[in-house]
DNA sequence: CGGGCCTCCTGGTAGC
DNA sequence: TGCTACCAGGAGGCCC
């Protein structure tokens, strides 16, 4: 599930139920989610610590205590769920954070592809992981976006999904961005006119904001979006034609062959 | 560098 | 009903 708009939703949920709260203890139900640390190590770092600040960068969520940063990545099936100490824990809870006030936060991952880690410095972590700027970063300008795509020789969809180019876009939202800009996913970056790439920048930022807001407020996406029409046999919300599949970056993409010419 | 494929996992579902 | 193959909103590693 988790691309930028989903992680933005988790971010809001984290703030509502974990920010400014003090950890009483954590429970880890599957260590494979902690490749860089251990349940004991993470527990020691978090016990009796208060989450002072949170941040999202691309598909990563960060939370700071006095000692450093908790790092969460959600893979394909991750989720963050708030609940109370008397509530049933959600299925597939991998890590549980218990707070002093009785509240609980569950990091949920059905397929356990995803990770929780620890970093002494958020920006160093972003640098070490070679993450590009967040697609919604205030400092990312249209010129900056063009600059990052300028030396790309491959397909536009691959570039958008490459977290070292810009962070936050995955398969679903790359399809959405290309649909709304009328660009075929297999088009080469180098064949797309700069003005069209500026349009990609504008559209991407607009729809990622819209998607984030819709998720946070629990509203569906606009019906004019490709997203709600992804299911098999779906029809293009713009022209009513049949949507097609295309494999790029080893992922199944959806596009409208009439609206997005190669 | 870029593309394609495999891998880590688990579970839902289409198809027989 | 039961079984299997395949797929899935991520991403690193490997080969060509």
Strand/helix succession: HEHEEEEEEEHHHHHEE
Largest sheet: 4 strands, antiparallel
Rg value: 20 Å
Strand percentage: 15-25%
DSSP strand count: 10
Q: What overall form do the CA principal axes indicate? A: globular
Overall pLDDT confidence: 94
Indicate the structural class: alpha+beta
Low-confidence stretches: none
How many angstroms separate the termini? 28 Å
Helical content band: 25-40%
Could you please describe the fold and organization of this structure?
The chain has 262 residues and is α+β, with helices and mostly antiparallel strands. Helices cover 30% and strands 22% of the residues. The chain is built from seven helices and ten strands. The chain has a four-stranded antiparallel β-sheet, covered by helices on one side. The protein has a four-stranded antiparallel β-sheet with strand order 2-3-4-8, with helices on both faces. A two-stranded antiparallel sheet has the order 9-10. The longest helix is centred in the last third of the chain and has 24 residues, at 194-217. The radius of gyration is 20 Å and the shape is globular. The two termini are 28 Å apart. The mean pLDDT is 94. It binds a DNA duplex (16 and 16 nucleotides) through residues 1-3, 6, 32, 59, 73-78, 92, 109-114, 151-155, 158, 161, 163, 170-173, 175, 230, 247-252.
